[in-house]
Amino acid sequence: MIFLADVYAWHPTDGVRRLSAGNGVYYQACVNPEGTYAVYSGAAEGAPRLWRTDLRSGVTVALTPDAWSAFHPVYSWDGTRIAFCADRDFPDEGAGVERLAPNGMPPTGGPHSIYVADKDGGEIARVTSERHQDQRPAFSPDGSRIAFASLRSGTLSLWETASNGRETPRPLLDGGMGYRPWYGRDGRWIYFIGEHEGRHHICKVPSRGGQAIPLSYEGFEESHGPFVDHSGGTLLMHAKRGGAQGIWELPLSGGVPRALSPPGFPRAAHPTRALNRTIVFDVPRTAKQGAES
Fold first, then answer.
1. pLDDT over 80 at 128, yes or no
2. Are 288 and 19 in contact (CB under 8 A)?
3. Could you tell me the domains of the chain?
4. Nearest alpha-carbon partner for 197 in 228, 220, 225
5. Where are the alpha helices (DSSP H) in 49-128?
């Protein structure tokens, strides 16, 4: 295993605590709107599974079996459903955590479809089909649509389809790279990782599709992982500035990004935030470094 990672929860008044087991690769969490649960992917070895931790009791349960790999779980805006990608319908083609990369993308070459389930992991339904590497789903605010990243056109870009799986997915971008989409609160825009001036940068595209529009902020080497707050006014991202990667809050109306620094964690990635201000995030580390509690 080339790296390890763990998921943490941070509330401004309660401090930081580790949610995952500390014995493998666990990352890319999403907190539910109320701030009572977090879902994430990972395992100590073998197939990554989806896990859910109760932020009040600390109890963690598996939502998917170890027979297939599952990645990138996210909650719907009302917290009643989860979307994720998995290789469930492609037996014997899955990959274990030993092949995962710190950037969070599943191993190249393996097909993955998008699925939705209820908040407890039940009633799993397939949204996309055929042999594509579909990943990084996100729900529209009303839950009727799902945007996702895919290599189905030969390059990594953004696609959208109905969350009930009854539509053929359509491309969203008029050219260019796109990854990790997230809808704005009003559903008019989709925010994502694009490319701007030779680096990864947070961009937006109309939800009907079109040209990528870079957001206005400067001074960052790389920016990733956009998550629009439930208020709709701010966007969280993890970004490098001066060589260090941390969590930043970007006003969508314009302005200077503000650093959000969990105590004791100068490096952090993939933040999402609940209505009660709880932020969940992950921290990758080398196998030689110990788990932080």
1. yes
2. no
3. 4-285 (2.120.10.30)
4. 220
5. none
* Amino acid at residue number 128: T
Which pLDDT tens digit goes with each residue over 49-91?
999 999 999 999 999 999 999 999 999 999 999 999 999 998 7
What is the spatial distance between Cα 126 and Cα 157, in angstroms, rounded to a whole number? 20
Share of the chain above pLDDT 70, in %: 93
215-257 confidence digits (pLDDT tens): 999 999 999 999 999 999 999 999 999 877 899 999 999 889 9
290 falls in which pLDDT band (50, 70, 90)? very low
CA angle 223, 30, 117 (to 5 degrees): 130
- d(CA 96, CA 92) in angstroms, rounded, equals 11
Residue corresponding to tokens 């401090």: 15
- 135 near 150, Cβ under 8 Å? yes
Q: What is the C-alpha to C-alpha distance for residues 141 and 186, in angstroms, rounded to an integer?
A: 7
Structure tokens at 99: 């092949």
| Cβ–Cβ < 8 Å for 179, 191 | no
The Cα 250–Cα 18 span in angstroms is 25
